[in-house]
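Sequence in, structure out.
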Amino acid sequence: MFTLRYAFDPTCFFDSLLAQDLATPLSEQLELKLESSHTAQAVVLNNPKLYELFSKPLLQSDFYLHSGPGFKPDPACINLWWGSSFELPSHLASADQRWSWITTGLAELVKTFPTDSGTLPLCLDMDLWQSPAPPPSDLEWESGQRILLWQASPQAKAETTQADLSALLAAFIPLSADWPDAVLVLQLDQVLPAFEDQLLAEIERLCQENQIADPESLNIHTLIGPLDTESQRGLLQCSELLLLPYHPLQALIGRALGKTVLAQPKLVEPQWGCLPWQESPAANSNTLQQGLQTQAQALEPEVLQAHSPENVVKILLTQLQELANQIDLPSRRAQAKAERLQRKEASREGRKQKYSLFHSDYKSDELKARRAWHERYAAYFMAAPGEVVDIGSGSGIFLEILRDAQVPAFGVDPDSDMVDVCRELGLQALPGDERLLADCGENSLGGIHASHIIEHIDGSRAIAMIENALTALRPGGLLVIRTPNWRNATVRQEGFWLDITHVRPYPLPLLEQVLKDAGFEVLAGGFEEFGWNDTFIVGKKPLPPPSSGNESRGEQP
């Protein structure tokens, strides 16, 4: 059975919907792990099934599938990309296979990548969208009115959103007097800077051009705030026309529901039957008039079948098998491991070996930490850019806190009994210790919590743990270490040695030096004000430098 990591942007409603529709049939055919391609924002999930697949520990995968604009290839996997051909991410040349969501975009994709490019259709679970749902409660709408819906892309730049909105108003306002029952609803996840002032100014300008005396007579309403699935379903069901959809799946859903859709031709399939959005405002007014005058035809059953999750999964599995037959994955993994070791050795050259100079400072903590103590450190991971691993997870207190906060996480513990306790509580846990980090994929974790672990290992293993943590973390990911405080007299004289498995203390200056030498930014460090005043330190994997703007689409840096 193949193993597959599937990275998508959970902050994009339609990317999340695509992953949700694929998750169940795909997980029945292979071992699937979901993860976020959005490294700058926390992953917050309200779907138990997706949460389980996000938290699932999968140390090594055969395939790494990226959906959407984000693409971070893993040199130890077969790398796949699936998205819009008009927003090609950087480093796409490293992909083994590239698929466009739609056939209309394939020609654009092959301009840059003439080989190893194709199409993989979007999938759509119609059972979800055919189930009736009420519209959002704050939607201003009266019976008998016809809703024309425009939704702003949460990923688009403000100037792009304003340009699309201006084009839409230029098409709608000239014909608004002829269609008094038409209501233009503008839905945005959040208010853009100066949005209201710019909207009113644009409406006033267009009213003057079209000799409309009272701009307030126009039926234009705004709907502000992100929508959950039920509200999105209800809004689409009560709308009659969808205008300028920003995501192909959005257009497909609209047509599957029998709605008229005005879309950019490059964004949709010809067989969906969408009306074309053009450059000319007058032409778009005519197209909009046509949409108001005619009843949209339902999509053909064979079109819907082509986009069913079962059919898409069938196509995907066939493609995966072909790639597995073509690519020597064991050799690729061995090469990636060798290159990682070479980089690690190179990074050690010239490093200041000051560790032996620090022997007198460290911090202490009570051996049985309470939940309140864990909650303090769990707060660091509320915005983790991926799942968190709790090394030495014990009875699962820290994992329970993260689960309650819907932060994907799994634990690692050398005691098999503790692993069983976690699993009995419904938590994800694996047998092992800090050395398991060496097997994690590069840039695969959002955070690492190591509470009272480092004092159980010698210096070489401690350095390896911190170096492996840096490799495994995504940019912006955090490493939190807690350990007994050697400055505390009780710890120094007796407390530290009450645990027969303790190997050596790690004073705070030593930890700071090791983290900095490994490449971490030290965000915080000090001593707790309770118990035995345990030492803590928080390291952050640096973010990449801002793009110089010289990278072209699909080119490697």
